[in-house]
Amino acid sequence: MNYQNRKIPEGINVSSEHPLKEFAILALIAVALVVLVVVILSALAEHFVKYIPFKAEQAIAATMAKQLDDGEAKSPEQQEIQDYLQGLANTLAVNQRLPKGMTITVHYIDESVVNAFATAGGHIVMYKGLLQEMPHENALSMVMAHEIAHVKHRDPLVSLGRGLTVLLAMASVAGVSDSSLFERFLGQAGLLTTLSFSRQQEKAADLEAYSTLREYYGHLQGAEALFEVLKSQEGSTKTPAFFTTHPLTSDRIETTKAFAASIHPLEKVELKKLPDFIERLK
C-alpha cells in the first residue's frame, strides 16, 4: 500500500459564509433563548411568588415603604385622618378575613392627587385628592376594600416578582453580580407607584370588595359612587391618577349596581357619612 503526503488545499478551514453573517445568526439565537427564558421565568414567578411568606414580603418592601412617608411629622389634622383611615382599614381587613399574620398599613399623603394604590408588604397609600371626591364612607370603603383585596391576593408581590425575575435573568446573562443593582431596584419609591395589575386581578379585587362591604355594612349600596365620581372626571383636563392603575368602564359601574340590587333589590338604606375632618377637606 502506497501512502502519499498530499498538500492540504489553502482555505480548507475557512467557511464560505461571511463571518458577520454567522455572528448575526448566533446573536439572534442567543437573544431568542434569553427572551424564552425570561418569559418562562416570569410565568413561573407569577405562579410561585404567592407562596412566599408574608413576613418575607414585608422584609422585601421595608426599604421601599420607608420612602412612602416624607419623614416630616404630620400635623394633628393629618394624623387624625391617618388614624381614621388605619382604623377603617383594620375593620375592613377583619371582615375580609385576611390570612393569619397579614396586616395592612395605611399611608395618608396630603397631596391633591385622585389616587390610591396597594404595594408589597401590605402598604396602602391614600391621597387627599381622592378623599376630597368621596361622597360618603361607603364609597371610601369600596376603595379601601379593593386595595386590601390586592394585598390579600398577593397582587403587588406578583407584579414585583415579574420585575425581579426579569432583572435576575438580565443580570445573569450580562454577568452582573453586584448586589447594589437589586438594592437600587428595591429602593426606588417610584417603583411602588408603577406596580400594575391585570384586568383579571382588578375584577377579582372588585368581587372581594363587594363581599367585604356586604359583610361590614350588610349591603352594597353606595359602592358604585366611587366609580361614578371617577367616571365624571374622566374627560377633565386632569385625569385622575386612579385611572392609570385601575381601568374603569361603564360595565364596572353596572356590575356594582347589579350586585347591590341582588342583595337589597327594593330596600333603600342610609349611607354612612364621612367624619367632619374628612368633609372639611372638600
Describe this structure in words.
By secondary structure, this protein is mostly helical. Helix content is 59%, strand content 5%. The protein contains 13 helices and 3 strands; from the N terminus they run H-H-H-E-E-E-H-H-H-H-H-H-H-H-H-H. The chain has helices at residues 19-48, 54-65, 76-96, 128-133, 137-152, 155-174, 180-186, 189-193, 199-217, 224-232, 242-245, 250-263, 276-279; strands at 105-109, 116-119, 123-127. Strands 1-3-2 form a 3-stranded mixed sheet. A hairpin with a 3-residue loop joins strand 2 and strand 3 (123-127). Helix 1 (19-48) packs antiparallel against helix 6 and helix 5 (137-152) packs across helix 9. The longest helix is centred in the first third of the chain and has 30 residues, at 19-48. It starts with 18 loop residues before the first helix and ends with a helix. The model has no long low-confidence stretch (mean pLDDT 79).
In short, what is this structure?
This protein is mostly helical and 282 residues long. 59% of the residues lie in helices and 5% in strands.
| General shape | elongated
Q: Structural class of the helix and strand makeup?
A: mainly alpha
Strand content: under 5%
The largest sheet, given as strand count, sense and whether it forms a barrel, is: 3 strands, mixed
Low-confidence blocks of residues: none
How many runs of DSSP E, i.e. beta strands? Answer: 3
Count of helical stretches = 13
Q: What's the helix-strand series?
A: HHHEEEHHHHHHHHHH
Instruction: Look at the structure and give the mean pLDDT.
Output: 79
Radius of gyration: 27 Å
Helix content: 55-70%
Distance between the termini: 107 Å
Going across the biggest sheet, name each strand in turn: 1-3-2
